[in-house]
Amino acid sequence: MENPHKQLVVGILAHVDSGKTTLSEAMLYRAGAIRKLGRVDHKDAFLDTDALEKARGITIFSKQALLTAGNTDFTLLDTPGHVDFSTETERTLQVLDYAVLVISGTDGVQSHTETLWRLLRRYHIPTFVFLNKMDLPGPGREALLEQLNHRLGDGFVDFGADASARDEALALCDERLMETVLDKGELTDADILPAIARRHVFPCWFGAALRLEGVDELLTGLDRFTRPTPALEAFGARVFKISQDEQGARLTWLRVTGGELKVKAQLTGEVDGEPWAEKANQLRLYSGARYTLAERIGPGQVCAVTGLTKARPGEGLGAERDGDLPVLEPVLSYQVLLPEGADVHAALGKLHRLEEEEPQLHVVWNETLGEIHVQLMGEIQLEVLRSLLAERYGLEVCFGPGGILYKETITEAIEGVGHYEPLRHYAEVHLKLEPLPRGSGMQFAADCREEVLDKNWQRLVLTHLEEKQHLGVLAGAPLTDVKITLIAGRAHLKHTEGGDFRQATYRAVRQGLMMAAQIHKVQLLEPWYAFRLELPAENVGRAMNDIQQMGGSFDPPQTAPDGQTATLTGTAPASTMRSYPMDVVGYTRGRGRLSLTLDGYRPCHNTDEVLAAIGYEPEHDLDNPADSVFCSHGAGFVVPWEQVRSHMHVDSGWGKTARPAEEAATRPRRMAAYRATLEEDAELLKIFEQTYGPIKRDPLAAFRPTRKTERPDFDAEQWEIAPEYLLVDGYNIIFAWDELNELSKQSLDAARKKLMDILCNYQGFKKCVLILVFDAYRVPGSPGVIEQYHNIHVVYTKEAETADMFIEHVTHEIGKGRRVRVATSDGMEQIIILGHGALRVSARMFHQEVQEVEKEIRNYLQGEV
């Protein structure tokens, strides 16, 4: 028989020392889930099972407990309250139906409370509030409610008040509730439920968990005013935590969001692009340190699965999507100092295993220096990490002095370009980089027409943008608060591979950052703390002076009614504030208390000093190049980032006004291009002038800048790197050369391939830019393409366009400023190209020239031998 109860997952969140674990204990006790009421200070709390948690009296790892209240089966997740373990809390939020936010009635809303509230808002979690420790002296109910509405926003309502007062307060929170009150005069549970689910209303209860006061009312409220989350029809689950049991078995914690998970079911996923498939050997329903085995798990339930070695926190299984990346990130970095003789690679493997379990821990291997660094939120994590390594692996480690993790951003929009074209590869990418508001992170988008770059290539560029943590060019720190938009690009029909766009994309990002740094539009960011400092009134002057010296700011001090203590709140750089807690303990003789919460990243207060100490040189960072690779004469060559834009094959059309310096730099090169004197060809010249009249040429025309109209299938700019151009009418040559004509009767493709190979050898010796043109007008819908075949360019004309039409157009475009030859036996085509200033070469003459080149190549090779 099916269980008629609702299945809900509820998380308990709080600032440290608010009594969160005590409330969890009381809820379990009053619901009959445990028989004995444990206490944190007695080190026998049901959910604080770890030795470190008992020793420090704080929750370090999120825990699970099962209880039933009324018609609801709850999975209760107790999360860490200390700021150092905020990422553990954030991961847990992604599997909650509802949350209970615990606030100390004596302290009220604190800095970390606001951080938790922002996370709850980000993940759209309906929230109940329990104001604890109301048995101790404090501001009282009205003042606390006013503080909640002032610091966290509107919607906080005392559900312990009488019905009429409660309904009146509810009507001010939600328009639908207002209409219902005006229409019916009172509200039912069914009326209130949607407003809570929409986060328009946040029910509040007051009590003292240690005395079991208000706990029953909270449990009743959680049963009355909650509803289950709609479940997916197909199986879906989200992984939110990795741990290990007492025997060392890996536990994968997940919440089922749809369908059903059966024991021994095969689960699939993907890690770093590699698919995996593993069986769920056991389904464990934990409550504290004990568990029961289940045969199946349904929607709204949380279990620990054994047998999964690949799944990662945040991963969606089945029909469930992957979770969002955590907002909270480490801000400190420490070098791991191993004992003498320890195997550094073995230690690295052990740290990586712990990294899977601890989302707030990042392990970084510096291969150049042979050092391991760990990135984390605070110094308490160091103690936890040291204890875990010693307890599990018998590895005793120490840590070097901590450093700050900086970030970088830009302050003005800029275009970045990247090109990657070694032999038989091709990709070009144009990106727009623009700044975002603080705390936005990285965003990626595409604003590029499909006729410019096909949709599949656009998706690939976005994938490469998202797969990597892009580094800045000031200190090599991670880039943040930047939106990167793909605005143009180009692929090759045959020679483009996925890796080509990865190279071009990375180089485009880097080139844009270098351009921004050149005009001083890159900014170094550092983490800042929001602090709350409670201390004796006589120490306030000292504290205010210290904070100013640290580059921080603060609000006017708030003095307690008795005049004995005062409170300072404000913000300061983490680099100056992180060692201050010990100073506070010293000069207040242990009576001061400093609470620090990460308040995001802001411009660095001592940029020059930091950059001098780091000594980062972006152009020497071989793993993150800003230069581009182009192809000439069959070989790739590198173009420095500051010159790369003038070599690009595509013009995005964005930011032209920002390029006067580049245009000025390229103008002399263009003006220096020359047009060769027309070689005498009396017969053809006479025919042309008899037909069209005398040819008039301006001897200075080649030195004047010209405006060219770019056609979509040919960008003349890409051929500018060589002084001489040879255009070959492919089929004309094939049918004019005896050996190729005979081959074409058997296979036209074979003849075409043979000609291409012959011309590759010819180009390699002559070092000209060779463009081989084939008619493609017979192919319906042919779009026309330009391909790179080894060291030559091969053009297949578009539908309804012949090779001679294409050659005529190209010679008209480039013949005025470059030395151009055309190999063809088409008499009319020879006349037309002659009029454009190009030099013609008949098929017979070109055949002799090719044979001479092949003879010289053979002589050279024989001489080498």
From TrEMBL:
Keywords: Antibiotic resistance, Elongation factor, GTP-binding, Nucleotide-binding, Protein biosynthesis. GO terms for biological process: response to antibiotic; ribosome disassembly. It holds the Pfam family NYN_YacP. InterPro entries: EFG_II (IPR041095), EFG_III/V (IPR035647), EFG_V-like (IPR000640), P-loop_NTPase (IPR027417), Ribosomal_Su5_D2-typ_SF (IPR020568), Ribsml_uS5_D2-typ_fold_subgr (IPR014721), Small_GTP-bd (IPR005225), T_Tr_GTP-bd_dom (IPR000795). Residues 5-229 form the Tr-type G domain. Residues 561-574 have a biased composition (Polar residues). Residues 554-574 are annotated as: Disordered. GO terms for molecular function: GTP binding; GTPase activity; translation elongation factor activity. It comes from the Bacteria. NCBIfam families: small_GTP. This is Translation elongation factor G. It comes from Faecalibacterium prausnitzii.
